[in-house]
Amino acid sequence: MLYSVTATNQEGIHGIVSLSSQKSFPTAHPLTTDEGFNPEELMATAWATCLNATIQALLESQKQARPSRVEVTCELHREATIGTGYYFQVNARASIQGFTLEEAESLVQQAHKRCPISKLIAQSQTISLQTVEWNT
C-alpha cells in the first residue's frame, strides 16, 4: 500500500471531519456562508488536483524541454433528479502551456486514464473532460 487515510464525519455538513493523518477541517452546508467545506467543493478540488498532478507527472516522465504550466478547472453542479435525490454534474477543462491543442489533448487523455480520481468517476454519465487551448 502506498498511502492510506481514513476520514470520519460524525456531524454531517455542520461539523468537523477528522482524518487519520491528524488533520481536520470544518464542514458547511453549500447554501450557506458558514466557514467550512461541502462535498461539492471537496469533489471538485479532488479531481482538479489529482488530474493536474497526473498531467505534470506525465510531462516530467517524458522529460519535456518546453516550459509548461498546467491548469485544470473543475466545475461541479448539484442537480435534482426526477423524483428524490440529487446528483453531481462535474465538468473539467484542462490546458497545458506551450502545447498545441492536439498535443495537450493526447496528454490530458493519458492522464485521465491514469489519475486515481478519474478512475473512480470514469464510468459516470455525469462527468465531462475537455481540453482547451492555454489562455492564462
From TrEMBL:
Which Pfam families does the entry link to? OsmC
Q: Which Gene3D superfamilies match?
A: 3.30.300.20
What does the entry give for GO biological process? response to oxidative stress
* Coiled-coil ranges from the UniProt annotation: none
Q: SUPFAM superfamilies of this UniProt entry? A: OsmC-like
Q: Which family does it belong to?
A: Belongs to the OsmC/Ohr family.
Q: What is this protein called?
A: Osmotically inducible protein OsmC
Q: Name its species.
A: Streptococcus cuniculi
